[in-house]
Specification:
Belongs to the glycosyl hydrolases 36 family. It catalyses: alpha-D-galactosyl-(1->3)-1D-myo-inositol + sucrose = raffinose + myo-inositol; Hydrolysis of terminal, non-reducing alpha-D-galactose residues in alpha-D-galactosides, including galactose oligosaccharides, galactomannans and galactolipids. This is Alpha-galactosidase. This protein is α+β, with helices and mostly antiparallel strands. The protein has four domains: 143 residues, Sandwich (Immunoglobulin-like); 155 residues, no CATH class; 366 residues, TIM Barrel; 156 residues, no CATH class. Helices cover 17% and strands 35% of the residues. 49% of the residues are buried.
């Protein structure tokens, strides 16, 4: 085996001359070892192939350093032929791949200029060729082998890179005659009842025990009953209670193994069927979770605190998509909660002006309360309307990691001044733990022993009282709209003092005992359920009168830590009802529920949709000083969202700091979460550039976040954290078909990761039918936030080849946000010219498309007399395209375009006019660039088309023209392109 001789480029000498480099010798085995292999479908992961596919495709990209010579590489897929086609005795076969010219678009890769890239493709026919015939699904393994030329030995990816086999789950065509029994292989003592599913294409079941759950009137205990197992289980996912207040994901292969109780289980079977199982909770005082026995059976665990006979209850659903099966059980669970007597009692006690209204989190949402007017809230309950947009969408600051528990008014003002000095107009603030009047001493006494003594703030933090301090803050920072304070559901970590202050004499107290196993364990005192409504009404009346407009109510898991059955039955729904009524009546529903991921609250309070959506902390805390916690924090939030997406909440992925090595990672995660964004920087330490990439200024001068209208969640339900895969978080903003799909990609491994995927993995991007007319096919361009690259128009169709794939390389702590923007047109401009456009939103923002409210397109005639133009030549054109864009935030608006049939470049002034609110934008505020744009492919009809990005500095023009916010707080931009 002869070595390959390579002469590298000459090197410069110190005197500016050139000296030849040494001749280097590379053996073929070394070249194969140094190559990088990226595949789709990916190796080491499971890919589900839907039954609609007539064939399934493989794409492999080989990357080799440019310091090595180019080679005639060969690549083959080695796959389990016998399993795929039922060919007994034929075992594995090779599928040679063909080198192609159309490569996947590289969206983000800092190594790109130092690499040769070679793309290979091939396909296998479906094993389900006959329509109407019944088939079983298949699980097919595959790997990759490659070599630098036909004369060398094959190299196996597994040997060189320790990469596991890829797995394809081939879903069979649906069997219309299948009636379906229980999706679980049930043990004795269970009854199955088939239900009508509200989620199309899902089969829904109720599983109920034939025997009752024992109960104890004094102190109930957990009872166990084996449910059964899932046949053909290939992988599973569970959402478990890592401890009482928090949920987290767990994953595994065939055998179910759980060390913590779970509330949701999902199984991917080897035939492609998803089985989702949900514990029934929230309808009475029975707490239900799942565990596993040594044989991998599902075990139902229930604690019966009702004092009555109750049965073990479980919901299950099957579908060919996880999201459909998941929705089926969640919709049914919501129905059960709303029908329960406990919920009916809570609903009847809601304020009459709130009840029966299902309100969302969009900017037109209003809620009514008695705050922010000149009346005395203690004596006037009549409501006034309040907008919720600022609460949901403003950038917020929290004092917790920033100032710690030793906080005071001076420190708060210093922190806010830092943001104002940098033109970051914080609109919402949370005054976190330790503003309250408490027993004991900060830094001396354990926080779990300290108890609340009064409504008024501690003099240490607010020497002149809470109202005086809040008034001073609002006077100094007029952009501050909402100020929230933190408190525990039962007052403080140590609940309510029974010896100090006025609370123990003003309200009836109840001695309670919290279960062993947490630092809070032991005896405490809390407000008696007979007085809890009065307590919360009085407390929030005081807060509202002091200028507080929101609350963060923490430590709600104490309701599940109560050891006594009587206490659990008396306090659980009563406390939830009292808190909900109080924040709706006094604070317009501006509340954050924290440490509350206990089933009793998640189901009872948050599944129904008849109140405004509040914020719900979605995972355990952000720990800035624990490096390994950061990727896990994002991973856990993305998986918790699979459950939380069906609740009447906005998921809060917790505050974070903008000035450490994972700050960008966290920022991108918050931007795609669909929830609020809180920062908790030390004063003077903020990364202002990073903050600007998450936020924008609205016409009223407030700093707002650009929040997608849908909740962000993982797109890879069964990929474990330990697999080292790229975490993909998908979300969508806007109306169907015309909105923007977004995907956050995060490297949660401790090494560089290469990957590629089809654009159809981005939410909202769908395949075009093979027989659809060419003029009606939908296409998208995809933009990377980090690299600022934009793909050419991609028209998703089968087969999936390089033209439909995007590729990236993420380093350690690497992340990116990709936006798939629909392309409109082609618009006929006459003279055989056609124009395609995509309105990208605000450039330089991670989720800049979320600044868009809407856009309209209209082909018009030439500019007439009296119309505004930048150049008189615009009056002679045959046709123009008018684009109307409505926006809710200021910044640099990007509009991608591709014009065919014209030899002339589009220029500002001669071919383009831009107006805002009917006034011409100064020409210097508009530029056109081609940087980062993908040129049309060679040897295609669009090869000579001109591509560009129009960049309109809307924020600068807004200031130049002296414009002011209108009644709808929107910005209108008009463009005329000829």
């Amino acid at each position: 085996m002869a070595p390959v001789t390579l002469k590298s480029a000459a090197h410069s000498t110190s005197d500016g001359g050139q000296r030849p480099s040494q001749i280097k010798f590379w053996r073929p085995g070394q070249m194969a070892l140094f190559a990088k292999i990226t595949t789709f479908p990916p190796l080491g992961r499971v890919t589900i192939v839907p039954p609609s596919r007539k064939q399934f495709e493989f794409t492999v990209v080989v990357e080799s350093s440019t310091s090595l010579p180019e080679q005639p590489w060969e690549v083959a897929i080695w796959y389990d032929h016998a399993t795929c086609y039922g060919a007994v005795g034929e075992d594995w076969r090779a599928l040679p791949l063909k080198k192609v010219d159309i490569n996947p678009t590289v969206l983000y890769d800092n190594r790109e200029n130092s690499l040769h890239r070679y793309t290979f493709e091939g396909n296998l026919p479906t094993p389900f060729p006959t329509a109407g015939k019944t088939y079983k699904g298949r699980q097919v393994s595959f790997t990759v082998r490659y070599r630098i030329n036909p004369n060398e030995a094959w190299t196996w990816v597994k040997d060189n890179f320790a990469t596991g086999d890829g797995e394809l789950i081939l879903q069979p065509p649906p069997d219309p005659n299948y009636l379906g029994g229980s999706p679980v292989e049930l043990h004795k003592g269970w009854h199955t009842r088939k239900l009508a599913s509200e989620a199309p294409e899902a089969r829904l079941y109720s599983l109920e025990s034939s025997t009752t759950i024992p109960y104890d009137e004094d102190d109930a205990v957990e009872e166990h009953k084996v449910l059964g197992n899932i046949n053909m289980c290939h992988r599973w996912f569970a959402l478990v209670r890592i401890w009482s207040p928090w949920l987290a994901p767990r994953h595994g292969l065939q055998k179910l193994q759980l060390n913590e109780p779970a509330i949701l289980l999902s199984f991917l079977r080897s035939d492609g069927l998803h089985v989702v199982i949900l514990a029934v909770n929230g309808i009475d005082d029975v707490l239900t979770t799942f565990k596993a026995d040594d044989d991998g059976n599902i075990v139902v665990v229930a604690r019966n605190d009702t004092g009555k006979d109750r049965k073990f209850k479980v919901l299950a659903a099957t579908a060919h998509e996880f999201e459909i099966a998941n929705a089926a059980v969640m919709y049914e669970m919501r129905k059960l909660v709303r029908q329960s007597s406990a919920y009916q009692d809570t609903a009847q006690s809601l304020p009459t002006h709130i009840r029966h209204q299902s309100l969302d989190s969009e900017s037109d949402t209003v809620i009514v309360s008695n705050m922010h007017d000149n009346r005395d809230p203690a004596h006037d309950d009549s409501p006034t309307p309040q907008w919720l947009a600022s609460w949901y969408d403003s950038l917020a600051y929290c004092t917790w990691n920033s100032l710690g528990q030793d906080l005071n008014l001076e420190k708060i003002i210093t922190a806010l001044q830092h943001f104002q000095d940098n033109k970051i107009n914080i609109a919402n603030m949370i005054i976190d733990d330790n503003w309250q009047s408490l027993t004991g001493t900060q830094g001396v006494d354990n926080q779990f022993t300290r108890a609340m003594t009064a409504f008024e703030a501690t003099p240490h933090a607010f020497p002149n009282g809470l109202k005086s301090g809040i008034d001073e803050i609002r006077q100094k920072f007029p952009h501050l709209h909402d100020i929230a304070v933190w408190h525990a559901l039962m007052g403080y970590w140590g609940c309510i003092s029974n010896t100090e202050g006025h609370l123990h004499s003003d309200y009836k107290l109840l001695p309670i005992t919290l279960k062993e196993g947490t630092p809070a364990a032991g005896p405490k005192h809390t407000i008696h359920p007979d007085d809890i409504h009065k307590f919360y009404n009085d407390f929030y009346t005081f807060l509202s009168a002091s200028g507080i407009t929101a609350v963060k109510t923490d430590v709600q898991f104490y309701l599940d830590e109560l050891s006594s059955t009587k206490d659990r039955r008396a306090l659980t729904t009563t406390y939830q009802s009292a808190w909900t009524q109080a924040h709706l009546r006094h604070l317009s529903g501006k509340a954050i529920s924290c440490m509350s991921q206990i089933p009793q609250i998640l189901y009872h309070s948050f599944l129904p949709t008849n109140t405004p959506r509040i914020m719900l902390r979605n995972s355990d805390d952000f720990f800035p000083d624990v490096p390994t916690s950061h990727p896990w924090h994002v991973f856990a939030n993305a998986h918790s969202a699979l459950f939380v997406q069906h609740l009447n909440v906005l998921p809060d992925w917790d505050m974070f700091q903008t000035s450490h090595e994972y700050s960008g990672f966290h920022a991108a995660a918050r931007c795609v979460s669909g929830g609020p964004i809180y920062i908790t920087d030390y004063p003077g330490s903020s990364d202002i550039k990073l903050i600007h990439s998450m936020t924008a200024r609205n016409p009223r001068g407030e700093t707002v976040i650009l929040r997608p209208s849908n909740v962000g969640k993982t797109l890879d339900v069964y990929d474990s954290y330990e697999s080292g895969s790229v975490l993909r978080v998908g979300t969508y903003d806007g109306r169907a078909d015309v909105g923007t799909g977004m995907m956050g990609v995060f490297n949660v491994a401790e090494r560089d990761v290469n990957f590629m995927l089809p654009v159809t993995r981005i939410p909202g991007v769908t395949l075009n039918a093979a027989d659809s007319p060419v003029t009606e096919r939908k296409c998208w361009v995809v933009r990377s936030h980090m690299s600022r690259r934009v793909t050419g128009p991609i028209t998703p169709m089968l087969p999936v080849g390089g033209g439909m794939l995007v590729q990236a390389n993420l380093g350690v702590r690497g992340f990116d946000v990709w936006s798939a923007v629909p392309v409109h047109g082609a618009f006929d401009l006459g003279r055989e010219r056609s124009l395609r456009v995509a309105v990208m939103g605000l450039l330089g923002k991670m989720t800049g498309a979320c600044a868009l409210v809407g856009s309209r397109f209209e082909v018009m005639g030439p500019a007439g007399e009296g119309e505004e133009v930048w150049s008189e030549s615009q009056r002679g054109v045959e046709r123009r395209l008018r684009i109307d864009v409505q926006m809710k935030a200021l910044g640099v608006l990007g509009v991608w375009f591709q014009i065919a049939g014209s030899e002339k470049e589009v220029t500002v002034g001669e071919d383009l006019l831009v107006l805002m609110h009917g006034r011409v934008i100064p020409q210097e505020r508009v530029t056109i660039t081609t940087a980062g744009l993908t040129r049309p492919p060679r040897h295609t009809p669009e090869e000579s088309a001109k591509v560009g990005m129009i960049q309109i500095d809307v924020e600068g023009a807004w200031d130049d023209l002296g414009l002011e916010a209108g009644w709808n707080n929107e910005i209108g931009v008009e463009m005329y392109i000829s």
